[in-house]
Amino acid sequence: MENDVIEIDVQKELVSAHGRMTLTIKVKLLGGELVVLFGESGAGKTTLLRMISGLTNPDRGILKVGNSVWFDSDAGINKPPQERNIGFVFQDYALFPNMSVFNNVAYGQTQGDKCYVNELLQKFGLEELSARKPDKLSGGQRQRVALARALARKPDFLLLDEPLSALDGDIRTSLQNEILKAHGINNATTLLVSHDLTEVFRLAHKVLQIKNGTITGMGKPDQLFLNNQISGKVQITGSIVKIQKQDAFYLLTVVTGMNQILKVTAFQNDIEKLSEGDRVMVFSKAFSPLILKM
Amino acid sequence: MNVIPVLIEAITCSDGVVLVDMQSDNCWLSAILVEGDELPTWLTKGAAVSAVFKESELSIAVNLSGKISLRNRLPCTVQKIECGEIMSVVSLKFGQHLIQSAITTRSAKALELNTGLEVTALIKANEVFLVQSIKNAQAPIPHPHQL
Amino acid sequence: MPTPFIETLLLTARLATFTTLILLVVGLPMSYFIAYSRFQFKPLLEAMVSMPLVLPPSVIGYYILVAYSPNYWFGRFLNEVFDVRLAFSFEGILLASVVFSLPFMVQPLTNGLRSIPISLREASYTLGKSKTTTFFKVLLPNIKPSLITAVALTFAHCIGEFGIILMVGGNMPGETRVASIAIYDEVQALNFDAANQYALTLFLISFVMLTLIYTVNKKSDTWKMM
């Protein structure tokens, strides 16, 4: 799998909240990569994941994993999800409520290999919970079960649909590690949908940026998200909400995209080009900021 | 912010830390940058770029003597002093360029700054930014959803 | 030789049990189809299944009786090929009761299947499991309350059915004389004690069945928690 190339070239008409759009994705992925699909909601990220898994059919195109053709509209090939060796982690995890944690994981296996199920449970720290039903688990525990279950089939391709969106703060961080672990277990090519930059920078080997159904950018997170024309490595964008004259200089209040408030000093020659409401980038050298653990 | 055009003379890399030596108006300047594995394409020897630094990071010395770690020493002439209650902004002529320094009013008084006085402006190398070209740098501000 | 009272009750139980079993076999695939297929004329099928809920039993009974008659193709076919005459026989009321109780089985099952998030089925498919495996291992166990409701409702409804049995089966002891008809018969004959015996038995059985349904439905907040 590791050297296999995954070739995706698909199109599909979609009716989204913003009206009709055509999802047009053409990309080649290397086996073993961890790729994050990044973009606003409604951009077509989940649909792409579903088309790869066979849960949604593209209108036309080709989907090839290594030498195996999963979808080819011209040749009339369309493998059902059962025949595509994938692991899918749903946004709501979709754990089977009637089965224990153990059985949820074991269900994903072709032959009942109890040892491997136990190995997975152990890797994700679920041994103690193996007899519990999903409704007796916390959100983070459910996510771990979903990951273990998706790996039970030893998939070539691991697809994760915003697996962390339902969780907050600290759990998110620790579960990002679990995702890295999941990716490491078989070195399955992993495609993760996210709109969280923290996730992108922590997890991605490569980012596919999708906007209105097309790929608008691709590359390493650094290349894609840091403005490369400035040597300042700390870059924050925001809007100026207030400009105050203070003593011999000015104090700007900037609200960032993450809704944080920054206060920045500026001088006469800066102010001449700025007014309240302007979108700005606040930047500093990687040296300058101090850092404090929270 | 202060912007002066510079010509890159030498680049020294070590594990992602980059020392850039450059010249502006016959004065040597250096900057220390932290870059990734690859340098941006515009950052090469011989390239004309802009050096950028903040007013508040620029110090002023009169009759500088003795040893000092700062190697960015810009010979300047005082053009104008704008005094605030606590801070003062001193406008300096450096070669063809006008730069500003924000220092405390107390210091400005202690230095006995006057229009026409020859001074040395000092800035630490890690406070100097390099920008491809200031016009380009300001134009593409990424959309908030991308950041 | 059991007393007529016991004989009637056994017959009633037999009718209800067979009807429920047949409907389980027929109702599960039908509910699956109604719940998930994108068949264009599905509303037509749904309407047909639910007709017994709104039509008087006599209307359905009349049509069934007509169908059983050797004058029409269905009755003639049965008569000629299998030498079977359904009117006024146990098999006849069994078939009629299957038709008439269909919505009581299909509706709860359909609702149960529809309430399962689609991602559960899809998760099973992505884990390599066929639709059949998914149905028995994932869907069915997760609609247990609906399944119990459907079975109990169908069973209780069969026990209580009167009009259609009378139309199709008449009142033949040991063959078509079920408890509800026996009550009517005993009242006509002014045997109020016997009528009371039947009535009380039916009352208790129905009451127990319904209590069971509500208990089950209360216990399982199903899996909205998930």
TrEMBL record, chain A:
Residues 5-237 form the ABC transporter domain. SUPFAM superfamilies: P-loop containing nucleoside triphosphate hydrolases (SSF52540). Signal peptide: none annotated. Gene3D superfamilies: P-loop containing nucleotide triphosphate hydrolases (3.40.50.300). One of its GO terms (molecular function) is ATP binding. The keyword Nucleotide-binding applies. InterPro entries: AAA+_ATPase (IPR003593), ABC_SmlMolc_Importer (IPR050093), ABC_transporter-like_ATP-bd (IPR003439), ABC_transporter-like_CS (IPR017871), P-loop_NTPase (IPR027417), Sigma_54_int_dom_ATP-bd_1 (IPR025662). Keywords: ATP-binding, Nucleotide-binding, Transport. This is Molybdenum transport ATP-binding protein ModC. It comes from Geofilum rubicundum JCM 15548.
From TrEMBL, chain C:
Pfam families: BPD_transp_1. It is found in: Cell membrane. The chain crosses the membrane at residues 15-35, 47-66, 86-106, 147-168, 198-216. InterPro entries: MetI-like (IPR000515), MetI-like_sf (IPR035906), ModB_ABC (IPR011867). Coiled coil: none annotated. It is a multi-pass membrane protein. Residues 9-213 form the ABC transmembrane type-1 domain. GO terms for molecular function: molybdate ion transmembrane transporter activity. One of its GO terms (cellular component) is plasma membrane. PROSITE patterns: ABC_TM1. Keywords: Cell membrane, Membrane, Molybdenum, Transmembrane, Transmembrane helix, Transport. It comes from the Bacteria. Gene3D superfamilies: MetI-like. Its main location: membrane. Belongs to the binding-protein-dependent transport system permease family. CysTW subfamily. Part of the binding-protein-dependent transport system for molybdenum; probably responsible for the translocation of the substrate across the membrane. NCBIfam families: modB_ABC. This is Molybdenum transport system permease. It comes from Geofilum rubicundum JCM 15548.
